[in-house]
Amino acid sequence: MGDYGFKVVKQGRNVFTARSWELSYSSAFNTLKVFKKGPGTATVTFGTPTTVTVDHQLGYRPAFLVFSEIGS
Fold it and tell me: Mapping DSSP to helix (H, G, I), strand (E, B) and coil, where does residue 23 land?
């Protein structure tokens, strides 16, 4: 890893001196990379189960994060 990135270590470890196998997470690892991002819209009626399908064409079920804001 160069002079930039994101690392997480367990409490009590020094993030600056920890070796790669001691890290809980590192942006140098090939995990949780952003493949695509962008805005989207889904209309949901509260109290009614709703399924939103995103056609990502990756060929596998990816891990994902969703940020949501409730409109007025």
Answer: strand
Close Cβ partners of 6 (under 8 Å, ≥ 6 residues apart):
25, 26, 27
Checking if the pLDDT of 1 tops 50, the result is: no
**DSSP character at residue 44:** -
Dihedral angle computed from the Cα positions of residues 42, 46, 48 and 53, in that order, rounded to the nearest 10 degrees: 20
Residue predicted with more confidence, 1 or 55: 55
The residue whose two tokens read 């690392």 is 7
Q: 42 pLDDT exceeds 70?
A: yes
DSSP letter (8 states) at residue 31: S
Those residues with Cβ within 8 angstroms of residue 28's Cβ, 6 or more apart along the chain or in another chain: 1, 5, 20
